[in-house]
């Protein structure tokens, strides 16, 4: 369910990146151009997302998943096509 996935995604991002859940929307940046978030923290986030959604996130794909909406689309696509 897409709405459920969005809520689960927001909860994990909030916990892993320390962003208040109510401040997270589709445009929220997971990764920004200045790379202010350490790579290890991003890997922890994507490992948590893998456990929650049973979707693999290859490193080459992670670098393209810059916003919450892109991550949500990726999860939904891979759940529907596996």
From TrEMBL:
Cited InterPro entries: ACP-like_sf, PP-bd_ACP
Domain Carrier as annotated: residue spans: 3-79
Top-level taxon in the UniProt lineage: Eukaryota
PROSITE patterns linked to this entry: CARRIER
Protein name: Carrier domain-containing protein
Lineage, highest ranks first: Eukaryota, Amoebozoa, Evosea, Eumycetozoa, Dictyostelia
């Amino acid at each position: 369910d897409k709405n459920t996935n969005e809520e689960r995604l927001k909860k994990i991002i909030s916990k892993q990146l320390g962003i208040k859940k109510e401040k997270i929307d589709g445009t929220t940046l997971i990764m920004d151009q200045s790379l202010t978030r350490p790579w290890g923290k991003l890997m922890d986030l994507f490992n948590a997302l893998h456990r929650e959604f049973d979707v693999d996130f290859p490193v080459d794909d992670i670098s393209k998943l810059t916003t919450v909406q892109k991550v949500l689309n990726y999860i939904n696509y891979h759940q529907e096509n596996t």
